[in-house]
Amino acid sequence: MQATYNALSEHGYDNLTIQDIADEFERSRTLLYYHYDGRDDLLVDFLEYVLHDFLEQLPDGEGSAQKELETLVETLLPATLDEDVYQVQIAMFELRVNGPHNEAAREQYLQVDREIKNTLESIFQRGVDSGKFTDIDPAVEAELFLSILTGTRTRRLTVYKPEQSIAELRTAINTQIERITTDSN
Questions:
Q1: Which residue, 172, 171, 177, 174, is CA-closest to 134?
Q2: How many CB atoms lie within 10 A of CB 141?
Q3: What whole-number distance in Å separates Cα of residue 29 and Cα of residue 113?
Q4: What is the mean pLDDT of the chain?
Q5: What is the pTM (predicted TM-score) of this model?
Q6: How far is the C-alpha of 34 from the C-alpha of 38, rounded, in Å?
Q7: pLDDT, tens digit, for every residue of 68-112?
Q8: Which of 40, 88, 122, 170 lies deepest, with the highest CB count within 10 Å?
Q9: Residue 160: C-alpha distances to residues 32, 41, 153, 185 (Å)
Q10: Is residue 185 pLDDT above 70, yes or no?
């Protein structure tokens, strides 16, 4: 998986070949073909690996609802990106865009969306229960924030340069957090 990450960072999604991954791999290209039918098959496993790692970084319900929401936003949308992280995120975005044509990739992204939505819904419910958030519908708010975060990540990858700050996008998200936060915070 590390070889795939390195190759994606260097070559991007469109230009990536099994040979590029094999060049980063300590073992043979034959071994890759033994386990994978082709590049896209390997990339779906890589996607699962990356998404599992990402899901492990999601808030765990131990902190305050507002702090966990802010941490989730920071995890999904850091202020700037290193070039190699940017290239891998672009590749993951391209896999997402291919979801309608690649059932395995689509299923991976559906799982991640469900996990993020469930995390958001839990955060919002705890915030409402503790009086830190206004009386919102946690399920509706989770759907809204998932859409905002997904759209913002898409804009970041398609409009902004990796080193370019997305402060104005984060300000818009912070405005949404302020909208649901009570004065008692």
A1: 177
A2: 23
A3: 33
A4: 87
A5: 0.83
A6: 10
A7: 999 899 988 888 888 888 888 888 888 888 888 888 888 888 988
A8: 88
A9: 34, 29, 10, 33
A10: no
Name residue 101's amino acid.
H
- Cβ atoms of 123 and 132 closer than 8 Å: no
d(CA 33, CA 29): 6
State which of 26-40, 45-59, 68-82, 168-182 shows the largest mean pLDDT.
Answer: 168-182
The single-letter code of the amino acid at 152 is T
As given in the structure block, the two tokens for residue 83 are: 């070039």
Structure tokens at 52: 């599992």
Alpha helix stretches (DSSP H) within the chain: 2-15, 18-24, 29-35, 39-56, 65-76, 83-97, 103-130, 138-159, 167-180
- CB atoms under 10 Å from CB of 83, counted, come to 11
Token pair of 21 as six digits: 């991954």
d(CA 18, CA 22): 6
Q: Is the dihedral of CA 78, 82, 86, 88 positive or negative?
A: negative
- Rounded Cα distance between 76 and 52, Å, is 14
Please tell me the distance from the alpha carbon of residue 75 to that of residue 58, in angstroms, as a whole number.
Answer: 8
